[in-house]
Amino acid sequence: MCSRCPWAETSLMMQEYHDKEWGIVHTDDTYLFEMLTLEGAQAGLSWQIILNKRQAYRDAFHHFDVAVCARLTNQEIEEIRLNHSVVKHKLKLYSVRSNAQSFQNIQREFGSFSTYIWSFSPPIKNNWQSPTEVPSQTALSSIISKDLKQRGFKFIGPTIVYSFMQAIGMVNDHLLTCDFRNCTSV
Length: 186
Known about the structure:
Structural class: mainly alpha
CATH class: Mainly Alpha
CATH topology: Endonuclease III, domain 1
Helix content: 40-55%
Radius of gyration: 16 Å
Number of domains: 1
Strand content: under 5%
CATH architecture: Orthogonal Bundle
Strand order of the largest sheet: 1-2
Oligomer: single chain
Order of helices and strands: HHHHHHHEHHE
């Protein structure tokens, strides 16, 4: 049996996410857009709720094809809100389109969103012994959040950005006792 970070023991879905994605370096722009979208949707909710709805988000938002999401009409977003099992928060749903547009602007400027986001820091590996030591935000997540907001992103505060950083492996916050601590790339 594997030793995991305690938060991952709540369900098989959380275990799979923890074991195969969280804290592992990701550089694919589609995956980065997916995680940015899901982390924004999670604001005020549990990650378990979002993982339960992940496939619905993939279906609704064309597997996070950023070009398609950037062109969504108001009517299409309303249809998503009414007909898909996503978080129904209107502003969060509309932010997918505006964030996709901002994401594309970054891709044009930097060549990829990955190049942009990874320019802030190489992967950071923390040495936490207890879940209570893991911060909800850092000075770096505040800097990135501020930059993203200036570029037009929504639902992108420092706490959301820190969760995003954990999701894409920019920050590895697996506890010292976690067997998955040294899994660093996909």
